[in-house]
Design a protein that fits this description.
The chain is an all-alpha fold. It is built from seven helices and no strands.
Length: 212
């Protein structure tokens, strides 16, 4: 009976993932002369991890696969969560009003066309002409209505965004103020305690007549 051969292989469907340009981009991403160019494709990490895995050396795979994690200001996010939810809710409401108004205008256009088709006192050619007139008129009305609603929607959306920005900025400024005022308090208290303690130590053993 033939022995089953064991093959240590990793099958990659697209060989372009290890194209040399990815390695060049990875090398150039840390160059300070390239300004803000900081592209770090995972293709390079993927290729290195493949080689280590095939070689049976898994020591650097977990380390190489790590990505820097940027923590957010959780207290600021929590304090502004209600404002963000209101922003999303109001924006969705204005979008729905916009869509409903356009749908009503289109429905009105459809009803006019249906009434025209039910008429028996005009020939097909005249019906086609009137249908074109109705279509042109409704398209103009629809465009005017769309522009009006879009303008109102954009104004209200910008107003909500402005309020959200002010709310977030107010919370951030509050935390910045506390971050500025609170740190010096502990050193000042410690300094005051040390000063009082030293003055008290200097007065010990000194006659009252010599104290000022």
């Amino acid at each position: 009976k033939p022995v089953d051969a064991k093959i240590n292989v990793v099958l990659v469907a697209d060989i372009d993932c290890i194209y040399r340009d990815f390695f060049e981009i990875r090398n150039q991403s840390g160059d300070p002369n390239r300004g803000d160019f900081n592209l770090n494709p995972d293709n390079v990490t993927f290729a290195f991890n493949l080689l280590d895995s095939l070689a049976g050396d898994d020591r650097f795979i977990p380390i190489r696969s790590r990505r820097p994690m940027h923590r957010t200001l959780e207290r600021v996010e929590a304090a502004t969560q209600k404002a963000r939810e209101d922003f999303v809710t109001n924006r969705e409401k204005f979008v729905k009003v916009f869509d409903d108004a356009l749908a009503k205008q289109e429905q009105k256009f459809k009803e006019e066309l249906d009434k025209l088709k039910e008429r028996k006192d005009i020939d097909p050619q005249q019906m086609a002409i009137e249908a074109q007139i109705i279509q042109d008129r409704n398209q103009r009305l629809l465009q005017v209505r769309r522009d009006q609603l879009q303008k109102e929607r954009d104004l209200k959306t910008r107003d909500i965004e402005r309020k959200l920005t002010l709310t977030v900025r107010g919370v951030q400024n509050g935390y910045k103020l506390w971050a500025l005022l609170l740190p010096p308090i502990a050193p000042l208290l410690i300094g005051l305690a040390v000063l009082v303690n030293r003055r008290a130590g200097e007065r010990e053993g000194v006659a009252r007549s010599r104290l000022r």
